[in-house]
């Protein structure tokens, strides 16, 4: 098979499933901003179809979608330079996902740890959408022929599945049509952990608000959550090896490193030997300094919802210009009559 050259293009998404938090910011949003530039087209999405794989109150979903859009812009995404939109306004995602539902195998989906974590013990009562989530995610990415996908570490397995779907589709139909996507999982905080439990990732859907720092938290709340964050009684080590077996300490150091754009080694050279009583206020000051300008700007943008809706409409139009011909060509490859005539 000949190697097709795909134009480099970045795609990623965030669910409007609750409050944007520090893990989303460091693992995803901040990286999205880093990748925005003249060299690559960047496509960023509020994945509302993913959000409803678990119950969402309709009013809250609409609010979270707009607030997430405000979060993207406040963090530095320029809606002129990047394509910024919500998933449900581009029906090609769901249409390609159906094709991929017919490519992906049950066994592949059953191995997904996000499915196992989110469905928990009650798989029989989980939605079919939650099970099929990774197939829709593959469609989100591949409907743009995206080559690079910045995500947090928890999405690594879903990106491997995306590659498997592209490979199987290309193989089954004898084409070289879908690119084999590169995950971009980089930085000091690719997996920010819960502040209450160093073994669990920070999540929008964690019932405890004390487990995460929300982008909309005020300075006092951020300081309180960091002060109460679970730690161990020892002082901070001076090198990375000293973080072994200390997940909570590692988490706070990783957060400090990512927020200050330093490596973990650099941070430990500075704070090694300090007790948490001294380190936590340093971390709180840094988090407030970095996050409060973003939350202030988010609140300002939320004051003009009509403008947010216009940005999303325009983004969806631009997204469809890329997605529609790729879906149409997919239908043609699969043998669907009428495809390609539009
Ligand atoms: P939910 O609990 O509803 O799944 P979430 O907090 O996991 O929400 P998502 O919308 O699923 O957020 O993920 C958006 C992006 O943020 C993804 O790229 C994901 O990898 C990243 N991300 C989520 N949680 C973390 C985390 N704790 N640390 C680093 N990155 C994260
Ligand atoms: Mg998630």
From TrEMBL:
Q: Which UniProt keywords apply?
A: Aminoacyl-tRNA synthetase, ATP-binding, Cytoplasm, Ligase, Nucleotide-binding, Protein biosynthesis
Q: Residue numbers of motif 'HIGH' region? A: 16-24
The EC number on file is 6.1.1.2
Enzymatic class: ligase
Q: Which GO terms describe its molecular function?
A: ATP binding; tryptophan-tRNA ligase activity
Q: Where in the cell is it found?
A: Cytoplasm
Listed under GO cellular component are: cytosol
The entry marks the following residues as binding L-tryptophan, namely 140
What is the residue range of the motif 'KMSKS' region?
A: 201-205
Origin superkingdom: Bacteria
Q: Which GO terms describe its biological process?
A: tryptophanyl-tRNA aminoacylation
* Binding-site positions, ATP: 15-17, 23-24, 152-154, 192, 201-205
Stretch forming the signal peptide: none
Which reactions appear under catalytic activity for this entry? tRNA(Trp) + L-tryptophan + ATP = L-tryptophyl-tRNA(Trp) + AMP + diphosphate + H(+)
Q: Which InterPro entries match?
A: aa-tRNA-synth_I_CS, aa-tRNA-synth_Ic, Rossmann-like_a/b/a_fold, Trp-tRNA-ligase, Trp-tRNA-ligase_bac-type, Trp-tRNA_synthetase
**Main location group:** cytoplasm
Q: How does it assemble?
A: Homodimer.
Q: What does this protein do?
A: Catalyzes the attachment of tryptophan to tRNA(Trp).
Tell me which family the UniProt entry assigns to this protein: Belongs to the class-I aminoacyl-tRNA synthetase family.
In its UniProt entry, what is this protein called? Answer: Tryptophan--tRNA ligase
């Amino acid at each position: 098979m000949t190697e097709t050259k795909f134009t480099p293009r970045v795609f990623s998404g965030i669910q409007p499933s609750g409050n944007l938090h520090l893990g989303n910011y460091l693992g995803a949003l901040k990286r999205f901003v880093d990748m925005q530039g003249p060299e690559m087209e960047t496509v960023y999405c509020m994945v509302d179809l993913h959000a409803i794989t678990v119950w969402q109150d309709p009013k809250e979903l609409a609010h979270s979608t707009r607030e997430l859009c405000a979060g993207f812009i406040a963090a530095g995404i320029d809606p002129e330079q990047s394509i910024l939109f919500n998933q449900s306004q581009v029906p090609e995602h769901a249409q390609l996902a159906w094709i991929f539902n017919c490519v992906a195998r049950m066994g592949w989906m059953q191995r997904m740890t996000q499915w196992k974590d989110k469905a928990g013990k009650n798989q029989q009562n989980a939605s079919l959408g939650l099970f099929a989530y990774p197939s829709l995610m593959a469609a989100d990415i591949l409907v743009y022929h995206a080559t690079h996908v910045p995500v947090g570490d928890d999405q690594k397995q879903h990106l491997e599945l995306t590659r498997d779907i592209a490979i199987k589709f290309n193989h089954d139909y004898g084409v070289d049509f879908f690119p084999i996507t590169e995950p971009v999982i980089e930085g000091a905080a690719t997996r920010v952990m819960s502040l209450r439990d160093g073994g669990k990732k920070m999540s929008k859907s964690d019932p405890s608000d004390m487990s995460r720092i929300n982008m909309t938290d005020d300075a006092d709340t951020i300081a309180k959550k960091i002060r109460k964050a679970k730690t161990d009684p020892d002082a901070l080590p001076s090198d990375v090896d000293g973080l072994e077996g200390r997940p909570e300490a590692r988490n706070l150091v990783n957060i400090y490193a990512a927020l200050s754009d330093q490596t973990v080694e650099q941070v430990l050279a500075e704070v090694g030997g300090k007790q948490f009583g001294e380190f936590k206020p340093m971390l709180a000051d840094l988090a407030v300094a970095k996050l409060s300008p973003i939350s202030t700007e988010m609140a300002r943008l939320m004051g003009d919802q009509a403008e947010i809706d216009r940005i999303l409409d325009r983004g969806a139009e631009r997204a469809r210009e890329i997605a529609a011909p790729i879906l149409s060509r997919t239908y043609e490859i699969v043998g669907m009559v009428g495809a390609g005539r539009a």
